[in-house]
Amino acid sequence: MKVYLNQFQLDQYINNYKIADYFSDFDYFYKHLKLVRFSKNDMVYQDKESLDYIYFFLSGKLKVCSNLSNGKSLLLCFFEDFEILGDLELYQIANPYNSIKVVKESYCIAIPIKDEKIKNALLKDIKFLNFLSFSLANKLVRISDVSSANILCTLESRLAKYIYYLSEKNTNQKSVYNTVFRENLTETAELLGTSYRHLLRILQQFVKDGILEKQEDYYVVKDISGLKMLSSDSYL
Question: Is the separation of the CB atoms in 67 and 99 below 8 Å?
Answer without folding.
Answer: yes
